[in-house]
Amino acid sequence: MKKICLSILLVLLSHNLIAQVSVVSLLDFGNIDNLDGKYLKDFTNELDKYVGTWMVSIEGNVLTVDLKKIEQKYNGHWYEDVIVGEYKYVENGLVVCDYLYRLNAPEVLDSQHYMEGNYIISRGQQIPCDDCDRAELRLNGFFYDPELIDYISFGFILRFRQVLGSEQLELTIFDNETIVLPYENASTDPSIPLGTYVLEKQN
Fold first, then answer.
1. How far apart are the C-alpha atoms of 36 and 109, rounded to whole Å?
2. Distance (Å, rounded) from C-alpha 78 to C-alpha 61?
């Protein structure tokens, strides 16, 4: 009985804490100077369309991406709604990397996933999208390769499309920033080749 009461108390305290912070729209992410203590909320459910398992197969090379939405994630400075994900890449029938199991693994913290993002961008931001509609929005985030994570980071852009009734995800992985190479000729190539992939939703 005591455990039940304690659990209820913790839930109430959590909701009370969120209620006391200032809530701002995820779409205003880039227009706010100081987000400390605020809650960056996805009021329009812009992130929902990216959730699911996505896959593309090109000449024996198969890329699978699994994405989920986390609400009220605390990043050490503010609360936020965010998309996190993991990926698997098979090249010529050989598994190069497989991190799909990490998406729901209890030992993996919300801040430790290899894909994470919630920055909503227009067609002219970051990597411009010439064939995007004028009002079309995309998702910008961070892409991590655990073999390179200590000295290089990558970015991703997600574009959701519906083509002939099929849900597709256009994923662009790009070099974000190189810090300092740990040794001469250290690898700068992620497990998945940089570029753009068009994945179809599996579930």
1. 21
2. 39
Q: Rounded to whole angstroms, how far apart are CA atoms 35 and 99?
A: 31
Number of C-beta neighbours around residue 83 at 10 A: 23
> Strand 23-25 and strand 39-41: pairing?
parallel
What is the gyration radius of the CA atoms in the chain, in angstroms?
A: 19
Q: What is the DSSP string of 71-110?
A: EEEE-SS-EEEEEEEEEEEEETTEEEEE-GGGGG-TTS-G
Question: Considering only 38-52, 130-144, 168-182, which range has the smallest mean pLDDT?
Answer: 168-182
Q: pTM of this prediction?
A: 0.86
CA pair distance 79, 83, nearest whole angstrom: 13
Residues 191 and 41: beta-carbon distance below 8 Å = no
Identify the residue whose tokens are 């699994």: 66
Distance from first CA to last CA of the chain, Å, rounded? 40
